[in-house]
Amino acid sequence: MNIWLVTTGSSDVQLTSNEDWNGWWQAIKQSVYRIRFNPSRAIDDDGEPYRLPARVLGIAYDQLPDRVKPHLSFPLVQNFTQELKSKAIEIDQIIVLMSDQENIFPESERETMRCPYWQDTCRLYPVLTDYFRTQFPDAIATPLILKPSERGLDDWDAVLELVQHEVESLHFETEPQTVYVSHQAGTPAISSAVQFSSLARFGDRVKFLVSSEQATQLSKILPSSSYLKGIRKQEAKKLLERHDYSGVEALLKDYPKNNNTTVLLEAAIQWNFAKFDEFAEELQKLSDREFACEVQERSRQWWWKAYEAAYLALVRLDQKNGVEAFFHSFRAVEGLISKWAEVHFSEHIDPNNDSPKLKVSILEDPVLNYFGKSKYTDRKEELRKDGFVILSGFPLYALLRDAKPNWKKDCKELTDFIEKIAPTRNKVFHRLRGLEIDDVFKSWLVDDATMLEEKILKYLNFVSSQSFSSLTETSLMKKVHEKLESAIAQL
Fold first, then answer.
1. Is 51 helix (H, G, I), strand (E, B) or coil?
2. 3 state DSSP class of 95
3. 359 has which bridge partners?
4. pLDDT single digits (tens) 385-417
């Protein structure tokens, strides 16, 4: 069973001449509120057809069928018909999608030819069924009328919902094998909604009929895959904006991708999981050797992962994911301090543990006065008693301040991190509750995202002795994202 779903617009039925119009108008003027409609040409040239608002032409045909019929032409519909016949395609049912906005345009608003009411195609149904009867005598023609109750047919959201409902409500005694859809007529909102709704209902059974009013040879049948790919590409762009790289990969699985695009997507997915080693390793597969070398050089730096984690925090902030934004931002700073300690005091650290341990030998370092202050006496005694202390939290901060005595000059904000932000972190991480974005700002003692980036960057640059001016400047992921945007745009 083959179905043809036909959308209709004001230009789908036209007139080959206007010579009898004055007589017709006299006959129907009471039905058109005595509005002086006149046939017009889109292009003022000999041989060009004349157009009338669809409802007006339908009224004329209803009242004067024998006089109007010889002057009718069907530009797009005729092209579609010829294409179907040339492929010997049998059509069993023709569903004619029409509009009727009488519910939202009362009579008081219909007294002007500008009113969208006159563009409605519902009165053209007899005209079109007569045409289809001659072209497909064995096909059953049925109307599918879009009749909005509140908003007009130029409203994209309302039209999508309306068309979806009408297409979903279609009932067939036998499920169609192929559904041919000609969607070019009607408003842009209707055309788009028909594409989406038909694909949602019938999937790969849909084939789209497309043509040009001026060029019959441009008529053709497109498989649904062509449209699905286009829709998925647009959806992929939206997902990319939200940094949903797994979603992008799933949507583009049927697209032919070059190796670089595949590598970039896989790397981005690893980055989104905060697997930065795997991220950098994947990028080494790029044929873009210049960028691959840049990745290799950057990923060798002991401080690099912290900047990536901080940039990931900004992305989570943009996604309104407060918990992960706070988690990654705090981990970026504390994780970098921990890495700094491992790099600069490797002889005093036992690395054979998921949580590095600080050895008692740190107390004998002549350069340091580690835990020298009285309030750290219990930590010093803990070291002497057990021979080690877990290198995290406040013992870690004490080592940083002891080894970088210039911190009061170069990063006086470190006091805030140690005495205010870190205690907040402990409260947040040990409770099962959500975090709003304002909570993240409050926890970091800032007012907005810009201030947050500046503050985190201050800490990271101080610990790593770098001088980056923004997190995007040092993040490899920012460049990967831009490369993905370019690659997807070219698919």
1. strand
2. strand
3. 388
4. 666 777 777 778 888 888 888 898 999 999 999
